[in-house]
Amino acid sequence: MDELTAQTILNGLRTDWLARNVVFFEMTDSTNTIASRLAQQGAPEGTLVIADEQTAGRGRLGRPWVAPHGTCLLFSLLFRPSLEARRAQGLTMVCGLGLRQAVRGVTGLPAQLKWPNDLLLHGRKAGGMLTELSAQAGHLDYVVAGIGLNVNVDAAQLPPEFHATSLLTELGHSVSRVALLQRALEEIEARYHELQAGVWPLQEWAAALDTLGQRVRLNTTQGALDGRAESVDEEGALLVRQDDGSVRRVLVGDIGLPDHGSDP
Ligand code: BTN
Predict the structure, then answer these.
(1) Assigned domain for 88 exists
(2) Alpha-carbon dihedral of residues 18, 21, 25, 31, nearest 10 degrees?
(3) Contact 116 CB / ligand 1 (< 6 Å)
């Protein structure tokens, strides 16, 4: 197993500013919780909070995020973007695309994204992202992008209701967490520069979404709806054509693909 420490992460890392401040824990409650606290205390943009284990890892929609000690990537990145709050989804796009490219580049696996922020391997969830933000007067103060990626864990060790997979399970061998993390940081930094320069990554993101064109069951705050996922709009909302021909726009929700039941 490769050792994950601030030193191993920084050694050979080719970013300018992302993850130049590394806060590493062998165990903590949640890297997102720590990163948000550090953000409020004035930590610099690019701060990386990373742990070998979380005792209270959080997923979207109040779900837990579970990973055995020392096997996976569990980290949060602090951004202070010059963006309107309604453009916060841009950070999710940038991080999702960076993570996908890192998995593809390091392992050769055909990683895809699932709306709004899951990473899929052969149709099963191998990673997810929890983006939390603070905004004032319509502008982002900070964004914490928390990423969990199942790396060297046997998927059989994960709770069955998660319908999850891992890089180990898909490849049949383990992968360097340091190499994956460094590649992800480099890919994310490059895309974040473009975002800050005004390049909106919608087209690349839409092309990476496995979801589009599929029939989906979408769980929303207003209940479930069935239809065909047609496209995403500028703000990252999913446009679903229902069976009666009408189109519903969903900004916050969760998809269950028919083959795999409801998403964990
Ligand atoms: C999801 O798919 O529901 C999002 C999962 C996000 C998990 C990561 S692990 C690192 C960071 N810290 C947390 O508590 N959650 C995120």
Answers:
(1) yes
(2) -50
(3) no
